[in-house]
Amino acid sequence: MTHADAPVGRLGATSIDCPDPAELADFYGRLLGMRRVVESPDGGVVAITDGAHILAMMRVADYVPPAWPGPGQRQQMHLDVSVTDLDDAVAGAQRLGARQAEHQPQPAVWRVMLDPVGHPFCLTTVGAD
After folding, report:
1. Does residue 25 carry a pLDDT above 80?
2. Which tens digit of pLDDT belongs to each residue from 111-125?
3. Are strands 120-124 and 77-82 parallel, antiparallel or unpaired?
4. CA 15 from chain center: how many Å?
5. Is residue 9 over pLDDT 90?
6. Burial level of 87, CB count in 10 A (0-12/13-18/19+)?
């Protein structure tokens, strides 16, 4: 595999928007046999794992549940991609057609990127091993 063909990172987590991260984490933890691994100080993010996969619940103000399969719904989840070097990963993602989002809430740990058609995803050193 050449450098140009090498992946930028690996899937780190799937994040789900919700009104109450702790409540949803408890549900999915029981449903999937997962345990808590991360909880932000304000409770806005709670992540659970089974040792191989991470599922993160993220609080969203004015959450509106999806009306599946209705069109026009807001984002309900996004991908976190674990990387060892954020700057290198950003550059690699940009080479593939992504761009950095204007709003970067924690750029030392996460870089919010937009895919070629505008879907957000995060590059993060969390869980990079």
Report:
1. yes
2. 998 888 777 889 999
3. parallel
4. 5
5. yes
6. exposed
Location of structure tokens 């050449």:
2
Name the CATH code of domain 12-61 (choices 3.30.10.20, 3.40.50.2000, 3.10.180.10, 3.30.200.20): 3.10.180.10
CA–CA distance from 81 to each of 13, 22, 42, 61 (Å)? 7, 22, 23, 24
Residue with tokens 């995060």: 122
| Per-residue pLDDT tens digits for 28-64 | 999 889 999 999 999 999 999 999 999 999 998 888 7
pTM of the model: 0.70
- For 76-129, CATH number out of 3.40.1180.10, 3.30.300.20, 3.40.50.300, 3.10.180.10 equals 3.10.180.10
Whole-number Cα distances in Å, 53 to 12, 37, 40, 66, 118 = 7, 11, 19, 24, 25
